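Lecture notes, unit on binding sites. The following record was shown on slide 14. It pairs a sequence with NAP.
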Amino acid sequence: MIKAGIIGGSGYTGGELIRILLNHPATEIDFVYSTTRAGKRVTTAHPDLLGVTDLEFTGNINLNVDVVFLCLGHGNSTAFLKEHDFSSDTKIIDLSNDFRLHKDADFDGKKFIYGLPELFKKEIENAQYIANPGCFATAIQLALLPLAKANLLENEVHINAVTGSTGAGVSPSATSHFSWRNNNVSWYKPFTHQHLGEINESIHSLQENSGNLFFMPNRGNFTRGILATSYTKFEGELADAEKIYHAFYKNAVFTQISEEPINLKQVVNTNQCHVHLHKHDDILLITSAIDNLIKGASGQAVQNMNLIFGLEEDLGLNLKAGVF
Ligand SMILES: NC(=O)c1ccc[n+]([C@@H]2O[C@H](COP(=O)([O-])OP(=O)(O)OC[C@H]3O[C@@H](n4cnc5c(N)ncnc54)[C@H](OP(=O)(O)O)[C@@H]3O)[C@@H](O)[C@H]2O)c1
C-alpha cells in the first residue's frame, strides 16, 4: 500500500483527496495535517465522512511517507517545503501554482513536472515532484491543445469560463458569501487571470506562434464545476476538427469528445473532462467541462500519483456523476 500524507486537509481540495484516497485500493492515508484542527476528527471539517472514517487531523508530519499532497494556498507550498524536509524517496504533488511555471519548476534541488497527463504522461510517469495544474487551466488546455498540436491555433482565441464557488477555497469572502453569490453571476480578472501563464506555456510547447488568448473568468452561483467555451477561426470542416481531437485524445482515459452539446452536471463529481465541438461559419466553438475539485485538482492529483507509481491511470477514480 502507498502511504499518503495530506497537508491542508481541512480545505476543499484536501477534503476531496481524503474522499478519493479512502476508496483508493492501493493507498492508505498515513496522516492528514492541519494547522488549526490537530487532534480533532476529520469529520469535524468533512461531516459527509461520518461513518466512513475515524481519522483525526494531526499536527505531526511523517517525513517518510511515499507521497505527500500539498493542498495549500499559493505561496504556502514554497514556505512549507522550506520548513519540512521530506525523505528523498517521497513523491510530492503540489496543488498550488507555486511550481507550475517553467521559471518556478526548479525548487531547492527538486524538479517539478507539470501534471497534465493528457500532455505530459511520459514525464509524469518518471517524475518525483508534480505541479498539479489549475482548474481553469485544465478545462481550457484540454479544449485547445489538440488545435495547437495540429499547428492550427494561429488566430486569437476567445474564452469564457464559469466556475463554482468551491474554486475559491473554504475561507469565506465577499464573493463567496451566500447572499451575494446566490442568484448572481459576475466576472473577475478579465484577460489577466493567473492561469493564462501555464496555459500559454503548454500551448507554446506544441505551437510556438499561437494566437493571443482572451480569457474572461466568471463566478457562477453553483458550488462546483467549470464550463468553458473557447472559440477561434478554423478553416476546415467540423469533421476535420473532430478527427484532430479524437486523434489527440485516443489514449486519454479521462477526456472524452462528446457528439452532443455538453452540460456541467455530466462531469460534476467525476475526474472526466468532456469536450464538444461546434462549427459556425469559419468559427470553431470548443466547449469543455470539468469538476474543479476533481479533474481540476484532487482527482487529477491522484491520476498523477497513479502514473508515478505505475498503477492503472484510473485506479480509484471511477466516480459517479451527480447528474440530477
Ligand atoms: N478549490 C479549487 O477548485 C482548486 C482547484 C485547483 C487548484 N486549487 C489550488 O489548491 C490549493 C488548495 O485550494 P483549496 O481550495 O483546497 O484551499 P482551501 O480550501 O483554502 O484550503 C487550504 C487549507 O490549507 C491550510 N493552510 C492554510 N494556510 C496554511 C499554511 N500557511 N500552512 C499550512 N497549511 C495551511 C488550511 O487548513 P488547516 O486550517 O486545516 O491547516 C486551509 O484549509 C490552492 O493553492 C488552490 O489555488 C484549488
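Take-home: The chain has two domains: 2-131+295-308, 135-292.
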